[in-house]
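Hey, I'm writing a tutorial for new members on how sequence and structure tokens pair up, and I'd like a real worked example in the thread rather than a made-up one. If someone can provide the structure for the chain below, I'll link this post from the tutorial.
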Amino acid sequence: MPAFNASLFQNDRKESDKQPDFTGPGSITKEDFLKVYDQVMSGGYNEGRDGEIKLRVAGWRRESSAGKKYISLLLSVDDYNAEKTAPKPVTVTDDIF
């Protein structure tokens, strides 16, 4: 399944509440971008109430080679053929990092 990859680092330059708490790079290969385009154009996605394309997001805690903690993200188009089960609620009991 084609996907977008991204990483979120704590924003060390945050100076106001209007700035994000986390920021980082993201990418998608040209091949995956074209696959996503084809999937969307063929109607192979779940649509939200306002017509938006729904995505799935997954995240993993990671640590860079410099010792900086971050979250690695994977975003993919929510495939309309996917099994329709309600997600289990998650309780976070520790700090995000």
